Amino acid sequence: MDHLLYIAMSGAKENMNGIAVRANNLANSSTVGFKADFEQARSMQAFGEGLPTRVFSLTERPGQNFDAGAIITTDRDLDVAIQGEGWMAVQAPDGNEAYTRAGNLQINAFGMLETASGLAVLGDDGPIQLPVPLAKIEIAPDGTVSALAQGAPADAIELVGRIKLVKPVNSDMEKGTDGLFRRKDGQIAEADINVSLLKGAVESSNVNAVGEMTYMISLQRQFELQVKMMKSAEEMDRQQNQLLRIVG
């Protein structure tokens, strides 16, 4: 009896975890540069005294969907979209280098170029610093950033840095809980001159909202089925106990 209950219980738990993955994808369907997470379940044998005959389900995230999202034109000077494969280097909250395709950039009060979430955009020599107050900024396809300080002559625009663009193999990349990508081996990716930017545009999320909603409905139905199985196991156990009392 406990075999049935064990399987149903673990299945319901992992259905909930799967729903959480799909819900997170849906919540980020409008997030610039977001890459959808995959979700799958597999059987795992339980170890321990008296448990080798028990098998439970385990939900895992085998990877992400690296397909490019749609390019949305914004005509904003600080918006850039990576054309084709590639990533933009940023400074993660822990101070280490990480990678993103979210190109909706901004300039903070101290003149530092950063992402919409406040992460410093890295250049060849670290974070890119701009003169403030700023009159004009230009970002070239190769990531070169030029700026004109407010009050300076129009021909005084100066080169302030170059956004570090990298192109590691997608299979070597993994996404952290912070939504940023890193190399699986922990190494820093080398800059790649073949990666180019499209100015005045951003890459949208690659989440298929309809598909994610369909998966969620399927997982919810599976969850309901698992709950019914647990109730059936409870009822069978109750009837079994009644039968034993009658026989006794």
Q: What key attributes describe this structure?
A:
Flagellar_FlgE/F/G, single chain, three-stranded antiparallel sheet, FlgF, 2 helices, 2 domains, alpha+beta, Flagellar basal-body rod protein FlgF, Flag_bb_rod_N
Straight-line N-to-C gap = 20 Å
Write down how many β-strands occur, each being a DSSP E stretch of 2 or more residues: 18
Question: How many separate structural domains?
Answer: 2
What structural class is derived from the secondary structure elements?
alpha+beta
Percentage of residues in DSSP E strands: 25-35%
Count of helical segments? 2
Question: Which bin fits the share of residues in helices?
Answer: 25-40%
Describe it.
Helices cover 26% and strands 28% of the residues. By secondary structure, the protein is an alpha+beta fold. The chain has two domains: 2-65 and 207-247, no CATH class; 71-203, no CATH class. The strands form eight sheets. Strands 6-5-14 form a three-stranded antiparallel sheet, with no helix packed on it. The longest helix is centred in the C-terminal third of the chain and has 39 residues, at 209-247. The model has no long low-confidence stretch (mean pLDDT 89). Keywords: Bacterial flagellum, Cell projection, Cilium, Flagellum. Pfam families: Flg_bb_rod (PF00460), Flg_bbr_C (PF06429), LlgE_F_G_D1 (PF22692). Residues 199-243 form the Flagellar basal-body/hook protein C-terminal domain. Its main location: other.
